[in-house]
Amino acid sequence: MPSEGTGDQALAPRPGRPDGLARAAGLAQSSDPAVGRRRLLAWVGAATRAGYSVAGLMLFILALETLKRGAGGLKPILNGVSADGVLNLLGFGWSGAYAVMSGSPVAAISLSLYAGGTISDVEAFAMINGSRLGASFIVLFVGFLLYVFRRRSADGLYIGVVALLTAFTLWLPVLPIGILALHSGWFDSVTLSTPGAVTSFIDVAFDPAVNLAADHLPRLMMFVLGAGLLLGAFTVFDRALPNLESASGGRVERIKDWIHNPLAMFVLGLLITAMTLSVSLSLTLLIPLSLKGYIRREGIIPYVMGANISTWVDTLVAALLLNSPRAFTIVFTEMVIGATISLIVLVFFYRPYSRLILATAHRVTHSRNGFALFLGAIFVVPLVLFFV
Fold it and tell me: pTM of the entire structure?
């Protein structure tokens, strides 16, 4: 009889402990030049994204300071077209979001106008609300391009119409409730000022450049310059973001069944928009994800709900950087009331609400005449509000 520990048992590797060949293979793999290159590229990519993030933040602060200094230059134009009051500023923010295909820059501009004394708190609230109504237009625009140039079906247009209808029906009711909240002081205790260290940094790092520009440029040109810098800041921020669409074939595939739940789609919209700080980017992702079958049509609605809530993060940051406690209250009021309405609809009225939105979108995109009427309405209404 062979003694214990000898024979075949002795030759077999012990469980959980690699034998010599496995250990050698592991060492060879760790010293593989290809693995080292991949790690180096990963570090370079992370450093590049960090650099873009810092550059975007610096450009964002410079843009806000420039806008605040030049805000007064826009007042004669607004007076010239009699653009004052809630409805005019609602149309202004709505049309502006169409023009730049994003709501965040328009919301930041409205806060700058308020901080510069050009518009009141209620008017700023209305302009921010308008920016939310027009932010989803980018989805319809991308869907239209796919329909025209790639000979696709009308699915992209359908997704854009659903996104816009969701924004219209959920955020228009926020306007009267929010105005009542501001007048009644529901959230007046919710204020947050810029920390002293941040204010000192802005004064030292950005005021000299802003003062130099203000000495040589009229205020209207300062405002235009600030708007350009703001758009540039959001472009730089986009370069710092991971390509979520290219990852859709892997990570999204693994949670494909899970994201068919409305609440899960709501959370997904919240998370992706919070990661990208751009509702335009997160909503545009709906088109490829839906066309590939990852997201069902009925899942678009809760996704848009969540995205339109977490997009306020960058606007809250803008309010802080402007060192205007009331501006923070304005954004907080918009965010809380909008989130409350969205959650009430999602929890208690989602089935009838989703059926209504999807049926309307189907009717709009079912014929060219229906789509033409819808397209005309979404452009005419904000322009009428702006000029009336």
Answer: 0.71
